[in-house]
Amino acid sequence: MLVRQLFSLVAAFMLFVWSCAKSTEKKSSKPLPDDINVLAALPLTVTAPANNPITDEKVMLGKLLFFDPILSGNKDVACASCHHPNFGFAESLEISIGVNGKGLGEKREFRIPNDIPFVKRNSQTIINTAFNGLTNEVQSSPDAAPMFWDLRAKSLENQSLEPIKTFEEMRGHLYTQAEVLDKILDRIKKNSEYQQLFKAAFGTENAITKENLAKAMATYERTIVANNSRFDQYMRGDNTALSQNEIDGMMLFLKSGCSKCHNGPMFSDFKTHTLGVEDNEKVGFSDDGFQKKYAFRTPTLRNLRFTAPYMHNGKLKTLQNVLEFYEDLSGGQIKNPKVKPRQLDPLIEHLKVNFKDISAIIEFLGTLNDDKFDRSIPTKVPSGLKVGGNI
Fold first, then answer.
1. CA angle, 45 as apex, 251 and 34 as ends, to 5°?
2. Angstrom distances, CA of residue 162 to CA of 124, 158, 210, 214, 228
């Protein structure tokens, strides 16, 4: 009798061990969850508007204009002053210094005396803006691509002229908003090199117009593309492109709820969300964002290595800070006292960021970096001014 009982216990124990082993084996071979389908690789090619096809002549012209301070009221600021290749076509400052600034990146500061305010928001990267608006659900139209933190412009063409008209960015005191573009065009028309470049790019004698100025700069910006990160390679079928730790980090990214807003090829839904980010005291006022709801557009998570500090006003210096912010937010902590709980985006209910998962998620985010974008800088610009402005 005792022998039979002992045998039964041994058999039961062996069955238990076998069951555990099978369970472990099944778990380790389990395929990635379907949630990964909310993410995607970037396209291999860029789509341009039908009325503004990409040509070498337009790219060359747009690049020179991008680096030429002739576009600013005081001839001291270029687009590249705040969107420089050395900083991933973004900037390492919380919020930018445009007119009356000197220096590059974190060394940039106002000249003294100064009566120009800081630029209102953090300088977003130009890398991959050619894909703005592209989601898993929507085939992006370059004519309707959402721009800026508050979606106030659509398409790279429309976006490109706005900084020229903005007082603290490029316009300054010299001209009014209503007259500045005409004054800038007058300067360009008097430049023989630009006359030839615009003619070559657009095929007509009188090609120096606001529309063509915007088209040339937008065309150059569409060539600033980094679409072959290790994540892209993995999603295109290369299973060796990511380590197991990075894959685990991706799963935690999905599990945490981050992908509710950061999804699709650009890791952005291109919608605005109210998160209650603390105001930046340098701005001098409380920035209430889109429709005065303290809402701001979801930024891309690509190339975060180059684009710190983070959020619309640069208040969070590191990715660790960003994920800790979301951990606090999911726990009910609102950093901006002007934002009430009822104003917060409902998607916050899906946030489940745990401190223990943060390092793994950051490791995954590193797979979205791709430094193979065009970093070349012209040696000179047609105006003869300093390339990139006072940097």
1. 20
2. 14, 7, 12, 10, 30
Domain positions in the chain are 34-43+227-368, 56-221
Instruction: Read off the tokens for 218.
Output: 């937008």
Q: What share of the chain is helix, strand, coil (3-state, %, to 5)?
A: 45, 5, 50
Residue 33 confidence class, pLDDT cut points 50, 70, 90:
low
The CATH class of the 34-43+227-368 domain is mainly alpha
Containing 162, the helix (H) or strand (E) segment is helix 156-165
pLDDT digits 0-9 by tens, 76-126: 999 999 999 999 999 999 999 999 999 999 999 999 999 999 999 999 999
Interval 126-140: pLDDT, tens: 999 999 999 998 777
Q: Which whole-number Å values give the CA distances from 238 to 91, 96, 229, 231, 241, in the listed order?
A: 32, 39, 12, 9, 6
Q: Indicate the DSSP class of residue 349.
A: G
Q: Give CA–CA dist 318/305, Å, rounded.
A: 10
Give me the amino acid identity at 285.
F
CA distance 264 to 108: 34
Strand partners, 322: none
CA–CA distances in Å: residue 228 to residues 103, 129, 175, 269? 32, 15, 43, 20
What is the rounded distance in angstroms from the CA atom of residue 178 to the CA atom of residue 165? 8
Domain pair 34-43+227-368 / 56-221, same fold: yes
Residues 150/272, Cβ–Cβ less than 8 Å: yes
CA distance 279 to 118: 14
Residue with tokens 């606090």: 328
Query: What's the whole-model pTM score?
Result: 0.90
Q: What is the topology classification, in CATH, of domain 56-221?
A: Cytochrome Bc1 Complex; Chain D, domain 2 (1.10.760)
